[in-house]
Amino acid sequence: MSQDPTRSLPMAGATNFRDLGGYVGQHGRAVKWRRIFRSDHLAGLTATDQALLAELGVTRAIDFRGKAEGAAHAYAIPGVAYHPLVIEPTVVQRALELQATGRTLTAQDAVGLMQQTYRGFVHENAPRFAELFRLLLASDAPTVFHCTAGKDRTGFAAALILLALGVPRDTVMQDYLLTNNLYRRPAGMGSHAPEEVLAVLWRVQEEFLDAALHMVDQDYGGVQTYLVEVLGVDAAAQRQLAGLYLQAAA
């Protein structure tokens, strides 16, 4: 294991940039390193960061941010094709709606809001995740996908990719929770809310991803059916995905 590449990559302008490689998927085959990366947004990347992207061979960036988020922190990276797959953020809006009723938000309120958001990914945002798979199947060119913090929209996308490659759920959850070790909240963000609420909104918890995966299980009978019937990733596409992104059998 000591010879494996590093999972987290040292970017000055992004704190949550990491590789999905190395996790063991179907038939004991590991996910290839340096093919699929997940990150927080890329608008703050320095020239050195962009040189590292080029060194990694990254030629595609998939951006899940909402329209206002993308406009506020737009970016263009030479040699990297930009693919916006817009998923509008809903947590802040729902939090503001609750506050408008005169209610003081609690950490438990925030957990509920986050779970609601993740359940929304499963149905309302399925077309964007389907397009993510279409892009991954079109080419195995090194790709980074991201949202603003690289934790929720990106976290669910990473979970779907890893599960489609046969990575066990407990390993998928471990990858998801790595955000809490890496991501650094920007200074001054969300000062309108109590710190206990911000501590929930800017981190990840098992309950968040579980809310989405439980909905997939409940509404579709499992990830496999969801991949096939909702995201259009049928058995042939899954074999192709494995061929592109899993190492050859030993």
TrEMBL record:
EC number: 3.1.3.48
Highest taxon above the source species: Bacteria
Coiled coil ranges: none
Protein's UniProt keywords contain Metal-binding: no
Keywords from the UniProt entry: Hydrolase
Presence of the UniProt keyword Hydrolase in the record: yes
Family matches, as Pfam families: Y_phosphatase3 (PF13350)
Molecular function terms, GO-annotated: protein tyrosine phosphatase activity
PROSITE patterns: TYR_PHOSPHATASE_1
InterPro entries in alphabetical order: Prot-tyrosine_phosphatase-like, Tyr/Ser_Pase_IphP-type, Tyr_Pase_AS
Protein name: Protein-tyrosine phosphatase
Taxonomic source organism: Acidovorax soli
